[in-house]
Amino acid sequence: MISTFLQDSAQGAEGESVKKTLSIIELVTTGGTAGIIIITILIVLMIVAIYIYFERILAIKEASKVDANFMNQIRDYVSNGKIDSAQNLCSQSNSPVSRLISKGISRIGKPLEDINTAIENAGRLEIYNLEKNVSVLATISGAAPMIGFLGTVIGMILSIFEIANSGGSIDIKTLADGLYTAMTTTVGGLIVGIIAYISYNHLVVRTDKVVYQMEANSLEFLDLLNEPS
């Protein structure tokens, strides 16, 4: 009875030892040359997407820093005719908001419409700088799943090719290589696409907040100039 138990335990242990495990690296390498190439492209796209996201989020975070007392100081300086002091304050702040106000201050004395136009033109430039490379994320979010689907099509073609040339005897291992290519590239493309899509939308939301901040301060400055003396 004890020997039977030991034999059963040995068989169980042996059964566990032959269980096949598959790491991520093996999953990629077993997909064949086409799978490796496509996964490599997807990895490069993911690195680019992550780099753009963190570079932009830091730039936007820096751009959103505006002293809560900034516009009050500008109001005091402009009201008292201290234009140079107001310009110096804008130079020290060095933010999109301060650059817009600085552009408006430099046009003081001209018609209000001209000042508004100058601020709007400067605002477009600031928005362009904030959105730099963000469109690349949108491109990656759309292109990555399609690249993954391309790998799926290639993998299925390879599998069908092997079936057609098997002569009635299908090599499961060779057939599995094509299926690995199909599945791994699809998953990889979706992962990269989802990451890029979420990153893009988060950056858009954060950029919009800075744009609204710029618009609010610009309107406040124009209202200041429009106040009766």
TrEMBL record:
A Pfam family that the UniProt record links to this protein: MotA_ExbB
GO BP term (any one): protein import
Recorded topology in the membrane: Multi-pass membrane protein
InterPro entries attached to this UniProt entry: ExbB/TolQ_transport (IPR050790), MotA_ExbB_proton_chnl (IPR002898)
Spans through the membrane: 34-54, 134-158, 178-200
MotA/TolQ/ExbB proton channel domain boundaries: 93-215
Gene Ontology cellular-component terms listed: plasma membrane
Name of the featured protein: MotA/TolQ/ExbB proton channel family protein
The species this protein was found in: Lacinutrix neustonica
Taxonomic lineage of the native organism: Bacteria, Pseudomonadati, Bacteroidota, Flavobacteriia, Flavobacteriales
